[in-house]
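Extended Data, panel c. Modelled sequence:
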Amino acid sequence: MSIFDVMGPIMIGPSSSHTAGAVKIGLYAHRIYDKDFKNVEIHLYNSFAVTGKGHGTDKAIVGGLLGMKMDDERIINSFEIAKKRGVNVKFFSHHDNEKHPNMAKIIFCDDEPFSISGVSVGGGKISIIEINGKKVDFSGRHEYLILSYKDVPGMVGLIGTLLGNENINIAYLQISREADKEVTLALFKLDSHCPDNILAKLKENTNIFKVTRIEKLNID
């Protein structure tokens, strides 16, 4: 246990779970989506929906989506900043006993809808639990590669070999297949940084549709 687990993170806002955690969910959601956006829906569940406005959860998520970190003083003005940037944000509140008490689902709506769900687990810590309908589980405390590729044999081996040749160890791998569309979503948790040349090689492969590197952020 670190001192930050006792004292909480450096942040703007009254609550580490409802404010700091919400910023992280927004920040990682935009990094996972990995594109500019102009239209986004934010669905708040349970405690986030009930007390989130008072704790600034709504402003915190928008701030994160705009690239702000937990200690950014601009978070309190995130709605106005989003409007100036031409970003249209719609909020929805839900009560669902089967969902986590502090859950947000973010849907980017510019092209085909792309959704990311995250939960705030306390002390400013979060977990991303869903990407575009596929279950995942990561906290953002490591570096990740998220790949969408054609469901053909040998892809995991190919990716693992490219990483291994750079002495990059795979600490964890999670795979979700969408058999009817022959598409696989793979989440690689890495022990070290994935360099640009490996990203380039992955993107050159015609069976790989999208490659997203999520670098570890020092925002605790």
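Residues 3-138 form a domain with the 60s Ribosomal Protein L30; Chain: A; fold (CATH 3.30.1330.90). This feature is highlighted in the accompanying rendering.
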